[in-house]
Amino acid sequence: MDRDGWNQRYETTDLVWTAEPNQFLVAEVEGLAPGTALDLGAGEGRNAVWLAQQGWQVTAVDFSEIGLGKAEQLAAVAGVELSTTCADLIGYRPPPRGFDLVVVVYLHLPASVRKAVYRRAADGVAPGGTLLVVGHDTTNRTDGYGGPQNPDVLFTPDDVVADLADSGLLVEKAARVPRPVTTEDGPRVAIDALVRARRPEVR
To answer: Can you give the pLDDT at residue 11?
Structure first.
């Protein structure tokens, strides 16, 4: 979906998603000391706002100005501050080594584009910092629930690890993870891909 499509989608409801952060983001980040954080593809800001509530100085980037406007409203209600940047991630370049944490949650792009975006995300990770990628796994289309049905934009943990090769980051975790989903027809399980990587400290 392009920028106009997302703007239209965000305009039609209060929140397309919920105000609650992604459960894997919470689990992977809770043990980290707060610093500077970059949320790429931030959408309506649920993850960025949660990070700000934990003490992170957060920059939220998305190509939907409507989504970012809702993120700013969500932050105001929560009593926290966000820095927002409206930009297409296909061309966006974060400041090199500029963030202690970079998160990319449910950003689904064709493989040829995805690699370039992930490499630039990795470039934004400071020494000692962390990159966290979470998205719908390739197997979710056949064995899980919900998410994009276009196989061209789905990925596996191994795909992400390959995209990050030679980035200077050390992969600490790469796994398929089940995510319980509540539906009108009862509980279901989605399958996500999760990769956490770290840039070594400068010695």
So the answer is: 58
Separation of alpha carbons 42 and 93, rounded Å: 15
Ordered by start, the domain boundaries in the chain are: 3-198
Kindly report the pTM of this predicted structure.
0.91
CA nearest neighbour of 149 among 158, 134, 159, 139:
139
- Which tokens belong to 202? 């400068």
CATH tag for 3-198 (out of 1.20.120.140, 3.40.50.150, 3.30.930.10, 3.40.640.10) = 3.40.50.150
pLDDT attached to residue 61: 97
Which regions of the chain are under pLDDT 50?
1, 3-7, 10, 16
**What is the Cα–Cα distance from 26 to 9, expressed in whole angstroms?**
26
In this prediction, residue 185 carries a pLDDT of: 82
Residue 19 has a pLDDT of: 62
- How much is the pLDDT for 12? 60
- H-helix or E-strand containing 178? strand 170-183
Q: Which CA distances in Å does 15 have to 7, 52, 144, 158?
A: 12, 19, 24, 32
Query: What is the rounded distance in angstroms from the CA atom of residue 127 to the CA atom of residue 67?
Result: 30
Amino acid at 197: A
Angstrom distance (rounded) from CA 152 to CA 160 = 14
Dmax over CA atoms of the chain, in Å, equals 54
Taking the C-alpha atoms of residue 195 and residue 159, their distance in angstroms, rounded to an integer, is 10
